[in-house]
Amino acid sequence: MTDPYEIDEDSPVFAIAVAAELAGMHPQTLRQYDRIGLVVPGRTRGGSRRYSARNIEQLREVARLSSEGVSLSAIARMLDLEDEVRDLRRRVGELESRLRDELESRPGARVFAAGATGAVVTLRAGTRVRRSADIVLWTPPPRG
């Protein structure tokens, strides 16, 4: 069960003045980062910026990296890659859940791994697959 008081880190809730204070920056810096697409907040219907907890963390990371001499374009690439990794992890979790559900609903199904060379191996339940392998779910056709 999820905590009803847990804050969604992607919910845009902080006005620019609050976000700037939480990030230790001037509001004009946040506006500039938004203009160049570095940290882009959500918007209200009226067009006001609203920052999420994740945006605040990104702003702090931008400040830290910038103070270490990392260029803004490099920081933007890092933030994009972090977003991509988060999305991919979420997608892998969804696919693992779907595969688990599929295996439970099809008792006769078997899972195979196929490597880059084309070798095919039947997997036992709970066996981990090398990252270089593809997973294939095979269900024998119904007899009859």
TrEMBL record:
PROSITE patterns recorded: HTH_MERR_2
Residue intervals of the HTH merR-type domain: 13-81
Coiled-coil intervals: 78-105
Pfam families attached to this UniProt entry: MerR_1 (PF13411)
Keywords in alphabetical order: Coiled coil, DNA-binding
Domain of life: Bacteria
Xref: SUPFAM superfamilies: Putative DNA-binding domain
Name of the protein in its database record: Helix-turn-helix transcriptional regulator
Record lineage: Bacteria, Bacillati, Actinomycetota, Actinomycetes, Micrococcales
